[in-house]
Amino acid sequence: MKELVEVIAKALVDDPGSVVVNERTEKKTTVLEVRVADSDMGKVIGKQGRIAKAIRSVVKAAAAKEDKKVIVDIMD
Length: 76
Prior knowledge:
alpha+beta, 3-stranded mixed β-sheet, globular
């Protein structure tokens, strides 16, 4: 899942080198924390959060296929 989020985020931003995805596990849930440059934050979130919601939907679908629960947090 971490690699999937990295690929998506790097495709969206102007500075792909600044994309960092940290993965941590809490009980049965995996939390992916996405950090990007301040100038690219709007590109990852999108208008009214549409892009962020789409990223979460794709990851949720991929996680469901593997019978896992994954949460994507976009950190500022």
